[in-house]
Amino acid sequence: MSKEQSSTTPATTASTLSDSEREAIATMPYEEARDKLIQAVQALEAGGLNLDQSMRQWELGEALAKRAQTLLNEVRAKLDAAQAEQEATADTAGTQANLD
């Protein structure tokens, strides 16, 4: 690979999170993911971390944010489905036709 090609190719970096940490994040409830995300952001904002520690906090924060957003998206989809179902049955709500 030429010097020119290597400068434009993104560097591949190893993850600082272990498989078990990723699995734990993937099963975290929303509140726990949110709280740990807040802690990661606070650690970054406080400063005083070396580059490796900063990158780990960043990667942890990204994984936690993704988990929290996934859970919020799932709840939004359930609410949208419930609202659509309610709208579909609104015309017959409270009538004998609704009981058939």
TrEMBL record:
Name a GO CC annotation attached to this entry. cytosol
* UniProt entry keywords in alphabetical sequence: Coiled coil, Cytoplasm, Exonuclease, Hydrolase, Nuclease
Q: Which residues form a coiled coil?
A: 65-92
> Where do the record's region annotations for Disordered lie?
1-25
Q: Where in the cell is it found?
A: Cytoplasm
Carries keyword Nuclease?
yes
Principal EC category: hydrolase
Give GO terms: molecular function aspect only.
exodeoxyribonuclease VII activity
Q: Where is the composition biased (Low complexity)?
A: 1-18
Membrane-crossing segments per the record: none
Q: Tell me what reaction this enzyme catalyses.
A: Exonucleolytic cleavage in either 5'- to 3'- or 3'- to 5'-direction to yield nucleoside 5'-phosphates
Tell me the Gene Ontology biological-process terms attached to this UniProt entry.
DNA catabolic process
EC numbers for this chain? 3.1.11.6
Could you tell me which InterPro entries the record lists for this protein? Exonuc_VII_S, Exonuc_VII_ssu_sf
Q: What is its main location?
A: cytoplasm
What function does the entry list?
Bidirectionally degrades single-stranded DNA into large acid-insoluble oligonucleotides, which are then degraded further into small acid-soluble oligonucleotides.
Q: How does it assemble?
A: Heterooligomer composed of large and small subunits.
**HAMAP family from the xrefs?**
Exonuc_7_S
Q: Which family does it belong to?
A: Belongs to the XseB family.
Task: Please identify the protein, giving its name as recorded.
Answer: Exodeoxyribonuclease 7 small subunit
Q: What organism does the UniProt record list as the source?
A: Bifidobacterium tsurumiense
